[in-house]
Every structure is written in structure tokens, then in C-alpha cells.
Amino acid sequence: MAGVVSALRANALHETEMDAAPSTAPAFVEFSDVCKSYDGETLAVAHVDLAIGKGEFVTLLGPSGSGKTTSLMMLAGFEAPTSGDIVLAGRSVSRIPPHKRNIGMVFQNYALFPHMTVAENIGFPLSVRGVGRETVRQKVDRALALVRLSGLGHRRPTELSGGQQQRVAVARAVVFEPDLVLMDEPLGALDKQLREQLQLEIKRIHSDLGVTIVYVTHDQSEALTLSDRIAVFNGGGIRQIGTPMEIYERPLNSFVAQFIGESNRLDGRVISRNGDRCRVQIGADATIEARAVAIGDVGCSTSVTIRPEHVVINPPPGGWDNVLTGLIETIIYHGDHARAQLRVADSQVFTVKISDPRNASALKTGETVQAAWRASDSRALDPDPAAGAAP
Amino acid sequence: MPAAPSAPLGGRQLKQRLRRIQRRQALRAFALLAPLMLFLAVNFLLPITLMFVRSVDDPDVRRVLPRTLAAISNWDGLALPSNEAGAALLADLGAVENREDLSRAANRLNYDINGFRSLIFRTARSAGRIDATHAMDALGALDQRWKDIETWGAVKRAAGPTTSFYLLGALDMKKNAGGEIHRVGSERAVFTLVLARTLWISLWVTLLCLLLGYPVAYLLATIPSNVANILMILVLLPFWTSLLVRTTAWVVLLQTDGPVNGALRWVGLIDQPLQLIFNRVGVYIAITHVLLPFMVLPLYSVMKSLGPTTMRAAISLGAHPFTAFLRVYVPQTMPGVFAGTLLVFISAIGYYITPALIGGADDQMLSYFIAFYTNETTNWGLAGALGVVLLMMTAVLYLIYSRLAGGAGPRWA
Ligand SMILES: Nc1ncnc2c1ncn2[C@@H]1O[C@H](COP(=O)(O)OP(=O)(O)OP(=O)(O)O)[C@@H](O)[C@H]1O
Ligand SMILES: [Mg+2]
Predict the structure, then answer these.
(1) B127 and B237 inside one domain
(2) Do B298 and B339 meet the contact criterion of CB atoms below 8 Å apart?
(3) Phi, psi at residue A66, to the nearest 5°?
(4) B389 Rama sector, left if φ>0, alpha if ψ -120 to 50, beta otherwise
(5) Which pLDDT score, from 0 to 100, does residue A385 have?
(6) Are residues B216 and B351 in the same domain?
């Protein structure tokens, strides 16, 4: 991730704090103010607005129970929205039964048909569309080649490994050239190596076929690797939509900042504001400067987020906007780097990433150190709505 | 066994130890299985073996008419036997001491030809008074039937020690005096008809159970489990009452002025009460009711393991929900269908009490006749033969069925 970060550094200088909508083309899939409740009391999906362009790869990313699958199921037609509307290719889906939506779907547990061979599985969407036998055979062969399983068409799904089964599921979902492919944590059951390999293949299939893909995962690195855009879900709603870079570099709230990558969060109160900078009081007697990304008026509470890799311990003096004194609690060695956990400003937890772990050996737990970072690397977020001031 | 890393085991020693452990395991397994084996041997293998033996055993006539049988052992059955045979018969019948034995032999011959019993007693009574030099003529004069080749054929057929008489009889076939097998006249051919009826009733009961049970199992497998548990109790309710109680309950329900007819008349569907009992309709209803759980349970257990995703996958891939059901859901439930139909069909084939109480004369199944020949006429040979036929039929059907079912069939092993 360090590579991504440094590559993004230049971009971060002229950022705009806007959701980068893909703009020009009309949306192919559009959620407008969609809500879904299973029990009539709590909302599993709350006021979701989401526009997806044709050919886009959009990932729904969020913790367990945040409403990702529910959103996908509403799009596929297996759940109906409680309110709001979903438009697919210009038509409201409420009037299209699920089997007429022309959506290919890949499920977390593969959902292959155990009584059919691999070839019959892949040919299924074609045969229910009345495609001729010979054409089915050709397309199935092509799809098998696409997922690199040529020659395994005669096997039963149970005779394949997990990764192979998942590739069959992908082939089956794309063989009928659907307008849209939905994937619900398709790689969740696989080990890390296989997952990375299949991520590349899914990416390749996406660019080969130019199909629109909506992908669900709770693995942030998977989302960053694959997606054109990421919609970060939490508590049934979308917290932020944007390209992987935007999501990582310019989180709009501390949930996104902490869910994607890692972030320190210092809670405090805005004491002054100056253009796109602000000064925040944290703890009793420390103030820091941060970018005023989303804050209320002076006096409102806010959270300042700083990524651990942007913090330097005991820096050479000069040129630092923020320097805090902290007490080292633990130092953990990670091989290619080390992490120090500090207590700063009235014992808020603060993590520092030390990129050269050899430097960490000079530090001892219980020692008092200086932690420093640039104001441009920290973001003041989460205006407190209780204070009644919106940005 | 103490761990002794300091003394590594030699190859032979290791093998010995392994063998000792395996022997102990085998012994343990055997000890665990022994009670069941014993139980099965006594209650299952023994009766079946006895049934097989009964169906071919034929000792009765042999005991009473040894000389006669010796005299006709080379008889070709084309013309009346020689005078020697008549003389031997008279000698045998004159020498009988045990009336019981004579009675048993007479019964055995009576199974073959009606009226043979009285013929034997009548001849036995006169045996001492007949001159053996013209035995055949004298016998013919005593009773016309001794002039019939088939009368002597029946005696020869009963020669024992084993016979095909009962097994052939269970298939409505018979040997004539010449030893050729032929079908008995249609007025006496009951068992093939009963056999066909047994299969037919079982087939219909199986189909009815499948038609009624499949949707129920589907519902049970797809609704929330708290509701499913309550419904499952209703499905299992038939198991809680005795078969006899349930069957008589059906008699009460289905009789001409019973509640079912009453309800139908009250609704206005019928003017005259329907005959629902002592006929085939009642038999179908009652057996289906009793056997329905045997269909629902295997189906339910298979369906419960399926989950909604393959159906959803099929629908999302463009299959109409009905197509998805037929092409994706139903094939996956086939192991349950095969297990359920097999259980129901094989149970139905052996049904006895329900048709006996609820059916009419034309609705009795094979088991009824087995019971009849066992209890009423004590013709155990024929009862055994009918049992063998039923068993063989079940086995053959099972083999054909499991062949048809192929990979989807139930695996008992
Ligand atoms: N069929 C259902 N009936 C009732 N509540 C449900 C149902 N499906 C989901 N929920 C609830 O809706 C909320 C969102 O669930 P959803 O399955 O969309 O989460 P998710 O983001 O896909 O989570 P995960 O990453 O664990 O799959 C959860 O609180 C869940 O308990
Ligand atoms: Mg989910």
C-alpha cells in the first residue's frame, strides 16, 4: 500500500472535496433513495443513492451487516425495496421479474448446480434462453477458456477445487453476455493466494468483456485493487463513494478513514478556521492544525484523522506543523516495518508506523517522544450535528 | 503403553504391535455388533429361512404312502399306472397306524385336488376289504376318481421330499401328471391377479404420497423453523397412534353416514352419500395416510440441506422460476424422491391390516392371503410360497429401481 500512497501524493495536492461522479454518460444502474427494512423497525438499507455507469466496476465495501448483500439482492430482484426506486438500463426494476433482468450473478458459496456437469452449468443460462445446441457448445468452450478451465467441462462441480468452482461460477455469470454482473463476496471462501490470483482474473475478464460489475466485499484491499469506484457502506447507508484513490487519500468521514487503511483519530474542538485550514484543540493544552475538510463552526467538535505512515517520531526540528508529546505504550515488530503505540493529548491512542524497523530499536516503552506530521496530511472530519452547524 | 523414545521399534516389532491393535479393534467392533447380529439372525434370517423351507418342503404324503410312491416313481403319467401301484396304495393305507399322519397327507393331496381328502379316507376305510390282485379295477369301482390319471398325478406330485407345487401354485401354475407346467384355469387363477392388484395399489399409494408429500416437504423446508416444527408434528402425528386405531378411525370417518359424507352433503357437493369405505377408495386413503410420513421425512431432509441459492442462481441466470424449479430444484431432491418412493412402495406391498379392515373382497392384497393360509387353512407351504414370491418381487423391483435411479438412488451402504 505504501507504493499506492506515494504515487497518490502528487494528486492529493489539488484535490477537490467532491464526490467524483462519473458524470457524462447516463447512469446504467441508479438507486434513488432506496430503503429496505426486513422487520418494519430497523432499516437494513437506509436512503441509498448510487449511480453506476455502463462498463464500470463498482465495489460495495463495508463491515458485516452493513447492507451490501441486501442492496445487491434488491438489484437482482430477490428482495423488494421498502421505498425508493432502482432503475436498470432506463427502466424501473420493480416491473421486471428477476429472471428477465439479464443479470449474471456470482454467489459467495458458488451456487453451482451439483447435478450438472461444468459445461452444463455454464450452458444453463444459454439453454434457458433457447440458444441452439451448437452455439451453446461454442460459447461454453469460449467461457471455459476465459476462466482457464478448458478441458474440465465434463467434470461435476464436486470434482473441482474451490478456486476452480468459483471460476466456473464466474464463467456461468458472463457466458450469456449480461448487461450487468453481480458478485457477492465471490472470493470470501478462498485462501489469500488464490484470492489474489482470481482478483486479477476478474479484473481481466472485466476489461476483456467490458461488462458492468457490481462487486461486494468486506476486504478493503480487494476493493482497492479491483474497483473503478468504491461505495463504502456502514449501518445500511453509503458513507462515501469514489475512486480507490479518493477513498483512501481523501476520506470524508472518520469511519471511511478508519475502515480503509488505518487512521489515527484525535477528537477535539475547532478553535479557529482559516480558509482550508483549521486549528483544533485536543485534550486540555494541545492544539493541532489540520485541513478543514468537513467541519462545523468554531466551537463545534470534530475528529482529526492522520494515517500512521504520515507521522514521524522524534523528527529533526523545523518544518513540522504539528508536534505532540506522547508516551510509548508498545512497540510491535512487523518485519518490514514496526508500529509504536503512543498515548497523546489526554491519553488518546495514537499509532505511528516506523518504516525502517531498525529505527524502532532505539525506542523504549515508557519513553516520552515527539510525534510530528504535516497539517496537509491530517483531515478534520465529522462535524458534530448536535452542535447544529453543518459545513 | 509407556512412551519409550530411547528404544526405537524394529520393523517386525512395529508390525506385531499394529496387528495386535487392529485385532483388538476388530474384536471391539464385533462385540458392539453382536447383539444386533443375534437379534437379526433370530428375528429376521430365521423366519425367512423357515419361509423358504416351508415353500418347498413336502414330507406328508411320503410318510404315509411310501410303497405307492415307490411303485409310481417311474410312471410316465400318460396312462393309468399298473396294478402294482394300486396294490401298493391299498397296502399303505391298510398299514396306517397314526390317524394324524393320514389326515395330514390327505390335506396335502386335497390342496392339489379338491375332494381328495374324502377320497383318501373313504379308500382307507375300505382298504382291508379289497383284493389286491385286481387292485386298480377295485379302486376304480370304489371311486371313479381312481380311474383318472390326474388323481395319480397328484399323488406323484406330492412325493417329496421337496416340491415345486406351492411355488408354482403361488404363480397360478401347476404340473400335470406328465410333468409339464401349465397355467391353471382362469377360475382358479387368483394369485397373479392379487399380485398385480398388490403392485397396482402400492404404485398408486406411492404416487399419491409423492404428490401430497412433495409440496408439504417443500413448505416445511422453506418456512421459518419455528412454524416448520409445528407442522412437522402434524405430519408425524400418524406415528403416535396405533395402526389399528387409525384404521378404525378411518372406518368411522368414511362410512356412509360418517362426517366426511356429511360434510360433503352439507356443502352441497353430493346428494347421495359416496361409498368411501369397503372399496378401493378407502384403501387408497387409509394407506396413503399411514405411509405419508415415510415420504415426507426423506424429502424434507434432502430439501432442508439445499438452501435458496441454487434456485436464486438459476433465476438470476434467466430461468423462469418454474423452469428453475424443474431443472435445478427437483433434480437436487431426487435422492429424497427415490428414498421416499422406495420406502413407501415397499411398505405398501406388504400391507395387511388396513385393506383387511377397510377394503372390500376385491381389494385384498397379497399379505392378506399369506395370513389367510397361515391362520385359517394352515396351508403353510402355500403361505411360504406366497411370501417367497412377495420377497422376490420386492428384491427384483428394488434392483431395477436402484439401477434406474443410478447415482441419485439411495445409498444404504
Ligand atoms: N432475510 C433477512 N431477514 C431479516 N433481516 C435480514 C435478512 N437479511 C439481512 N438482514 C439484516 O439486514 C442487515 C444487512 O444485512 P446484509 O446481509 O445486507 O449485510 P452485508 O453487508 O451483506 O453483511 P455481510 O458482509 O456479513 O454479508 C443485517 O442487519 C441483517 O441482520
Ligand atoms: Mg453479505
Answers:
(1) no
(2) yes
(3) -90, 0
(4) alpha
(5) 54
(6) yes
Residue-wise DSSP of A149-196: -TT-TTS-GGGS-HHHHHHHHHHHHHTT--SEEEEESTTTTS-HHHHH
Q: Count other C-beta atoms under 10 Å from residue B406's C-beta.
A: 9
Residue A203: burial class (beta carbons within 10 Å; 0-12, 13-18, 19+)? middle
Burial of A376 (0-12, 13-18, 19+ CB in 10 A): middle
> Would you call A148 exposed, middle or buried from its count of C-beta atoms within 10 A (0-12, 13-18, 19+)?
exposed
In a domain, B309, yes or no: yes
Task: Tell me, in angstroms, the distance from the centre of ligand 1 to residue B310's CA.
Answer: 19
What is the whole-number distance in angstroms between the Cα of residue A236 and the centre of ligand 1?
9
Is B5 part of any domain? no
Structural domains of chain A in order of their starting residue, each with its CATH number: 2-254 (3.40.50.300), 263-388 (2.40.50.100)
Residues B314, B225 within the same domain: yes
Shared domain for B322 and B260, answered yes or no, is yes
| CA–CA distances in Å: residue B334 to residues A151, A237, B410 | 28, 43, 9
Structural domain boundaries, residue B45: 28-53
> What number is the average pLDDT over the span A110-119?
91
Residues of A in contact with B319 (CB under 8 A): 99, 124-125, 128
In a domain, residue B7? The reply is no
> Does residue B131 lie in a domain region?
yes
Cis peptide bond upstream of B161, omega within 30: yes
Kindly give the distance from the C-alpha atom of residue A270 to the centroid of ligand 1, in angstroms, as a whole number.
Answer: 37
- Whether the CB of B87 is below 8 Å from some CB of chain A: the reply is no
Q: Average the pLDDT over A345-355 and give the result.
A: 80
Asked if residue B281 and residue B148 are part of one domain, the reply reads: no
Residue whose CA is at the smallest distance from ligand 1 atom 8 = A70
Q: What is the pTM of this model?
A: 0.73
How many domains are contained in chain B? Answer: 3
Taken in order A189, A192, A195, A199, the sign of the CA dihedral is positive
Residues surrounding ion ligand 2 at CB below 5 Å: A 69
Note whether B328 contacts A: Cβ–Cβ < 8 A. yes
Residue B332 to residue A115, Cβ atoms within 8 A: yes
- CA-nearest residue for atom 20, ligand 1, is A65
What are the pLDDT digits (tens) for A136-185?
999 999 889 888 888 888 999 988 988 889 889 989 998 988 889 999 98
Q: Does B238 share its domain with B108?
A: no
Q: Which residue has the cell 485536543?
A: A282
Report the distance separating Cα A29 and Cα A93, nearest Å. Answer: 10
Q: Which pLDDT value is given to residue A328?
A: 86
Q: Is A125 an interface residue toward B (CB < 8 Å)?
A: yes
Question: By CA distance, what is A172's nearest residue in B?
Answer: B317
Q: Are residues B47 and B67 in the same domain?
A: no
- Residue B312 near residue A105, CB atoms below 8 Å: yes
Cβ–ligand 1 distance for A65 under 6 Å, the answer yes
Q: From chain A, pick out residues whose CB is under 8 angstroms from the CB of B314.
A: 113, 124, 128
Residue nearest to atom 25 of ligand 1 (CA): A64
CA distance A293 to A308: 19
Cα-Cα-Cα-Cα torsion B235, B236, B238, B239, nearest 10 degrees, comes to: 170
Select from B318, B334, B408 the Cβ nearest to the Cβ of A128: B318
At A39, which helix (H) or strand (E)? Answer: none
For the Cβ of A67 lying below 6 angstroms from any atom of ligand 1, the answer is yes
- Calculate how far, in angstroms, residue B309's C-alpha sits from the geometric centre of ligand 2: 13
Q: How many C-beta atoms surround the C-beta of residue B399 within 10 A?
A: 10
Query: Mean pLDDT over residues A101-110, rounded?
Result: 87
In this prediction, residues A298-310 reach a mean pLDDT of 85
Same domain for B350 and B376, yes or no, is: yes
Chain A, chain B: beta-carbon pairs less than 8 Å apart: 68
- What gap in Å lies between CA A384 and CA B242, rounded to an integer? 72
